[in-house]
Amino acid sequence: MPHGWIIIALVLFLESGIVSKMLMSKWFNKGIWIKVVISNIISGVVGFALSMGLNGGWWLVTWFPWVSSNEVKREHLLFFSIYFLLAILLTLVIEIAFNLLTIGKTKEHSKSSIAIASLIANCATNLPIIVFMYLYSFRVINP
């Protein structure tokens, strides 16, 4: 597996580019990129702190709790899945809210276009990584 920081850099790069492309019709807009990166950092810090406070665990250097079959047994997958779903939803709420406050401040884009761009960017970047990492962690695949 690549080091976690490589994954974070890839997610930040892709999310910033997708939001910029959807809102500005170009892959790079410095203002959009900065705001999307900050929203990701905020959601990461909040997730890390909540995870530490709630269960003494931590989220490594990714936005979702990365565990394997060593930490979560198959009979506990339902509880982990609920926790995981709440973590993803909290991430979306934080990032969309921050993007609405910062990008929306200029009144250049509608609130719905900012929210949709943020949601699509999160889904496009996080879902493939989540699927791959959990398939790898639970030894469904061995790349």
Map the helices and strands.
Layout: H1 4-24, H2 30-55, H3 77-102, H4 111-137
Helix pairs in contact: 1-2, 1-4, 2-3, 3-4
Explain this structure.
70% of the residues lie in helices and 0% in strands. Helix 3 (77-102) packs antiparallel against helix 4. It contains four helices and no strands. The chain has 143 residues and is an all-alpha fold. The mean pLDDT is 83. It has one domain.
Q: How much strand content do the residues show?
A: under 5%
Silhouette = elongated
Mean pLDDT: 83
What's the multimeric state? Answer: single chain
Q: Which parts are unreliable, with pLDDT below 50 for 5 consecutive residues or more?
A: none
The rounded distance between the terminal residues' Cα atoms is 9 Å
* Count of separate DSSP helical elements: 4
Structural class by sheet pairing and helices: mainly alpha
- Radius of gyration (Å): 16 Å
Percent of residues in helices comes to 55-70%
Query: What's the SSE pattern?
Result: HHHH
Count of distinct strands: 0
Counting structural domains, the number is 1
The largest sheet is: none
Summarize the structure.
The protein has 143 residues and is mostly helical. It contains four helices and no strands. It has one domain (4-137).
Labels describing this entry:
143 residues; mainly alpha
